[in-house]
Structure formats: C-alpha cells, structure tokens
UniProtKB/TrEMBL annotation:
Protein name, per record: UDP-N-acetylglucosamine 2-epimerase (non-hydrolyzing)
PANTHER family reported in the protein's UniProt record: UDP-N-ACETYLGLUCOSAMINE 2-EPIMERASE
Enzyme class, broadest EC rank: isomerase
Organism of this sequence: Stieleria varia
Domain UDP-N-acetylglucosamine 2-epimerase intervals: 45-385
MF annotations from Gene Ontology: UDP-N-acetylglucosamine 2-epimerase activity
Gene that this polypeptide is encoded by: wecB
Highest taxon above the source species: Bacteria
Record-linked SUPFAM superfamilies: UDP-Glycosyltransferase/glycogen phosphorylase
EC number(s) reported in the record: 5.1.3.14
Keywords of the record: Isomerase
C-alpha cells in the first residue's frame, strides 16, 4: 500500500480549539446507523471529553430513519441525498459535494466513518481533501476480490488508504491491514459495534415478544426461515436462483414459514415480489424495524442472507446461518462453524436449508452465544482511542 505522509506520521488527533474533541460522525445507510449508534451513545455519555457533530447523508431514507428512532439519535445535519433508483456514480458525485461543504462549514477535528458504503468511501475522500484525520470503524475486512462484495470491497479499501485510525473488529482484519503495510500504531482491535447494538436490543426485544408476536404471527411457527438479500452482485441471475430455491423449499416444507423483509432497492423489490408474491407460506414484508428484526432473528431456526450485518448478528442468537455469497469478508463465523457459504446455487440452498431445518427442529434456544465479532464493548474502545486514552 502507498502510505500518505499523514498516515505514517500520525500519533493523536490534533484539536482545533477547546478541550473537547470535535469529530464529524457521518453515516447514510441502515447498517451504518445501527453500527454507529453505540458509538454516538458513548460520545453522548462522555460529553465532557467529546463534542460530536452527527451528519446523515440520507443515502437511505425510510430504512435509516427506522434505526435512528430506536436509538433516539437526532442528526445535527441531514443531507437528504437519497433518490429513488439512484446510481452509484450519481450518489457518489452528490455525496462528495455535500460532505465537502459540511466539512468546510463545520471545521471538525476529524471524520469518523463506518463500513463500506458509498457514504463511507466518499466521506473519507472528502476528509482527505481537507487533510483531516479519518477514523474508520470496521476497518480491514477483505475478500481480496474487487467484484465481491461489489462495490463494497473497493469502498472499504479506498477508505482504508486515507484512514489514520483503523478500528479493526477482529485480529484477522487487523492482520489484513498489517499485510497491506498499515503501521501497527494506526490499528486497534476494537471488536465490532454491531454486537454492542445487538446486546442493547436483544434482551429488550425478548421482553417485547408479545408485541412482535402480534405483528408476526407466522414467526411463532415451530419452523421459521428468515431471509434477507440485497447484494448488487446477486442482482439478476443470483437473486432469481435464490427465489427459485425458496419456491421449492416452501413447497416441500409446507409447515415452515418463510419470512422475508424485502429491501427497498427496486432491483430487489421487483424480482422478489414477482417470483415469491403468491406463495402461502412465504411472507414478503417491508424492511423490519431493527428491534423487531432482532426478535425475528431470535425466532428463526435458519437465517438465509447475503447481508454483512446479519452474518455478524445471527450467530449470537443460535440460528443456523447460510450466506448467499461465494466469498465473505467476514470469515470468522464460517471458521467457528457458526455460518456457511452457499452462494446462489439453487440446489445447494435447497439441500442445506432442508438439512438444517431437520437439525434445528424445535427451536434454537434463547441464549446469547459468544460471538467472534465482538463482546459489546467496541464503542468504548474506539472513543477511548479517539480521545487519547
Ligand atoms: C447500500 C450500500 C450497501 C449496503 C446497503 C445496506 C452502497 C453502494 N451500497 O445498498 O453496501 O449493504 O445499502 O442496506 O453504498 N431505497 C429506498 N429507501 C431506503 C433505502 C433504499 O427507497 O430507505 C431504495 C432507493 O430506490 C435507492 C435504492 O434503494 O435509490 C438503492 O439504495 P443505495 O443506498 O444506493 O443502495 P443499497 O442497495 O441500499
Ligand atoms: N436489518 C433490519 N431490518 C431488516 C433487515 C436487516 O433492521 O429488515 C438490520 C440487521 O439487523 C443488520 C443490518 O440491518 O444490523 C444489516 O443491514 P443490511 O443487510 O441492509 O446491510 P449490510 O449489513 O449487508 O451492509
């Protein structure tokens, strides 16, 4: 990796004025909001040390607002960038101009981003143009293949090039950064804030079960499969294969309820409703609010997903996790035997879901299992590092 002078010489975040660190925390999509929320809550608790500016790009709208409401987070700045059916280039261009203007106006001490979306890549780039330090939360996840996940592997690597503080969730992600030439002093293994968020939500939503049972009576069946899917590399043929596997599974397992909160991307909504809309035991529902989604994961015997965040969360709740991707930048759960890659191969999906339903008949238990991605204290470690502890 080519190192920028700022990266190699970095030691602590310089403060422009006052005693408190003034980071610009930027996010734009549902998963970023879920994973940033514990960090923002930790900053709020430590308001004597840190004075964050909270900026939503609004890359997502409904799916983002669902999360902010749950964690009672009110962005100081909302750029409202989402357009229906937005293109990668269109969003990138609008986001760069808008985040640049925020930095110019607010003059923060640093920019904090989380993950691998367009918002992340562009905000890190805007910070670089302003010569500001970048804190990258969930740094170092790699498949080594720019086409999977696409375009996220590219986004995460671009953000990494200009990052000063790499918050690696696991030792494996730390090792990937070291192998690319990032100095050890610029990396800390913090755990993933997704587990902080999950631990906030899970006990609360178990206590709210009566409410969610009323909303999702299908989830009270003995046998439940929860599905999510939105990866761009699966659009078209891959998604069609997954749907055709679901049709076969729903027919061969009439007692099993298949609950599928469908992502709002029109490239997902259209094909999924067309192929699965009329099957009695397949329930296509709108994106679930985070707390109810946590409860649904807790209820599911099997989770079939191409989501990054769901791969990290579901193993905690004892569900069998099948990942509809050929490669994952989160191999820790696979290595621990808590998840399995099935790609988009119809026959393999049908076979593995059927086998797992047989193995997990009668439920998965109500324990929160130790999770390879975090221990629930990632946000504290990240804020400690940012303020110089
Ligand atoms: C984005 C991220 C992806 C992340 C996913 C999380 C990029 C390139 N992709 O993908 O990494 O895994 O979010 O869900 O950053 N839409 C709505 N309302 C919403 C959200 C989306 O209507 O609340 C529709 C809009 O038509 C929008 C489209 O979905 O144009 C696509 O949204 P976009 O953020 O560009 O991509 P995602 O597929 O959601
Ligand atoms: N999620 C949610 N409602 C849903 C599906 C997912 O709240 O209907 C949550 C899930 O718990 C996880 C996050 O959204 O924390 C994952 O987001 P997504 O799959 O959209 O993106 P990815 O993680 O793949 O980037």
């Amino acid at each position: 990796m080519t190192k920028s002078p700022e990266t190699t010489q970095f030691s602590a975040i310089p403060r422009r004025s006052g005693d408190r660190l003034r980071p610009l925390i930027v996010f734009g999509t549902r998963p970023e909001a879920i994973k940033m929320s514990p960090l923002i809550l930790e900053c709020t608790r430590r308001s004597d040390e840190i004075d964050p500016l909270i900026c939503s790009t609004g890359q997502h709208r409904e799916m983002l607002d669902q999360v902010l409401g749950y964690f009672s987070i009110q962005p100081t700045i909302d750029l409202g960038l989402m357009q229906p059916g937005q293109t990668l280039s269109g969003l990138t261009a609008r986001c760069l101009t808008a985040v640049d203007a925020v930095i110019q106006e607010q003059q923060p001490d640093c920019v904090v981003v989380q993950g691998d979306t367009t918002t992340v890549m562009v905000s890190a780039m805007a910070a670089f143009y302003h010569r500001l330090p970048v804190v990258h939360v969930e740094a170092g996840l790699r498949t080594g293949d720019l086409s999977a996940p696409w375009p996220e592997e590219f986004n995460r690597r671009v953000a990494g090039i200009v990052t000063h503080m790499h918050c690696a969730p696991t030792q494996r992600s730390c090792d990937a950064l070291l192998a690319e030439g990032v100095p050890q002093q610029n990396i800390r293994v913090t755990g993933n804030t997704v587990i902080d968020a999950l631990l906030i939500a899970v006990e609360k939503e178990r206590a709210n079960a009566a409410r969610w049972q009323e909303k999702y009576p299908q989830a009270m069946a003995e046998s439940v499969v929860l599905i999510t899917g939105h990866r761009r590399e699966n659009f078209g043929g891959g998604l069609a294969e997954i749907c055709s596997a679901l049709v076969e599974l729903a027919t061969s397992h009439p007692e099993t309820q298949f609950i599928y909160p469908v992502h709002l991307n029109p490239n997902v909504q259209g094909p999924v409703h067309e192929q699965l809309g009329s099957i009695a035991n397949i329930h296509l529902v709108p994106p679930a609010d985070y707390p109810e989604f946590v409860w649904l994961m807790d209820r599911a015997n099997v989770v079939l997903t191409d989501s990054g965040g769901v791969q990290e969360e579901a193993p905690s709740l004892g569900s069998a996790v099948l990942v509809t991707r050929e490669k994952t930048e989160r191999p820790e759960a696979v290595d621990a035997g808590l998840a399995e890659l099935v790609g988009t191969n119809r026959e393999l999906i049908v076979r593995r879901v059927s086998e797992l339903l047989a193995q997990h008949a009668g439920g998965t238990g109500a324990k929160v299992i130790e999770n390879p991605y975090g221990d629930g204290h990632a946000a504290k470690r990240i804020v400690d590092w940012m303020v110089g502890v």
